[in-house]
Design a protein that fits this description.
The protein is an alpha/beta fold. The protein has a single domain, classed as Alpha-Beta Barrel (TIM Barrel). The chain contains 9 helices and 8 strands. The protein is globular, with a radius of gyration of 16 Å. It starts with 14 loop residues before the first helix and ends with a helix. The site of D-xylitol-5-phosphate has 21 residues, from strand 2, strand 3 and strand 8.
């Protein structure tokens, strides 16, 4: 399948990226009535990638966006790296639609996939990178079988479904446990409640990709917020 977007694999990281983590604004907190303007603004403000939160009203108690929204982001930002976070019960059914819509990375939840290695390999065979995610209650051992193969480990630091929640510190020991077991070419992304106040702790624990929604899109100076997140 031919895909558009960034040529390089942003989520097959290098050691240097850990000293300066990637910042990915979550468009769940954008103004949907002016999505193109908000996406362009955070890219101009220094975002490294765009995080697309997909919800099905079943795996999580909310609905958000589907492949059409991902395709719309791809149209207005042809070279941005698009990171799709599937918070849905049947991720395998939606891998192809999101690849066709221009996704560069697809992350699915460990809680709903019985054969995660197969799905990771299917995503990687398309040329995209593949992530596996953990809800706050899920122990890191649930992703043990994927440690050598996933490009990205997404550790949720809020209960999935809504932006603007308080950061759960219980995510940090999981980050440390995973970081101790992966290579510097694999990334750990923390998602939910990340702010300039706690970013340093997240980075020191071993994260090298930080998703942030409400504090970036809720600010009148997103450049300053992105810089502060990156500095930690
Ligand atoms: C929650 C989403 C997060 C969230 C981040 O289900 O996966 O990406 O929108 O938003 P904040 O930074 O506001 O917690
Ligand atoms: Zn997310």
């Amino acid at each position: 399948m031919k895909r558009v977007g960034s040529g390089g694999a942003l989520f097959r990281g290098e050691l240097s990226a850990r000293l300066s983590p990637l910042i990915g604004p979550s468009i769940l907190s954008a103004n949907f009535a002016d999505l193109g303007k908000d996406v362009r603004a955070v890219i101009r403000a220094g975002a490294d990638y765009i995080h697309v939160d997909v919800m099905d009203g079943h795996f999580v108690p909310n609905l958000s966006m589907g492949p059409a929204v991902c395709a719309a982001v791809r149209r207005i930002a042809p070279s941005v790296w698009i990171d799709v976070h599937l918070m849905i019960t049947n991720p395998s059914d939606f891998v192809d639609p999101f690849l066709a819509a221009g996704a560069n990375n697809i992350t699915f939840h460990s809680e709903v996939v019985r054969k995660p290695i197969e799905l990771i390999q299917r995503i990687q065979a398309s040329g995209a990178t593949a992530g596996i995610a953990l809800k706050p209650q899920t122990p890191w051992t649930a992703i043990r079988s994927t440690l050598e193969i996933a490009d990205l480990f997404l550790v949720m630091s809020v209960h999935p479904g809504f932006s603007g929640q308080k950061f759960l510190r219980s995510a940090l020991p999981k980050v440390r446990a995973i970081r101790a077991r992966i290579t510097d070419r694999q990334r750990i992304e923390l998602d939910g409640g990340v702010t300039p106040e706690n970013a340093g702790t997240c980075i020191r624990a071993g994260c090298d990709a930080l998703v942030s929604g409400s504090v970036i899109f809720g600010s009148t100076n997103s450049r300053r917020v992105i810089r502060a997140l990156r500095r930690g």
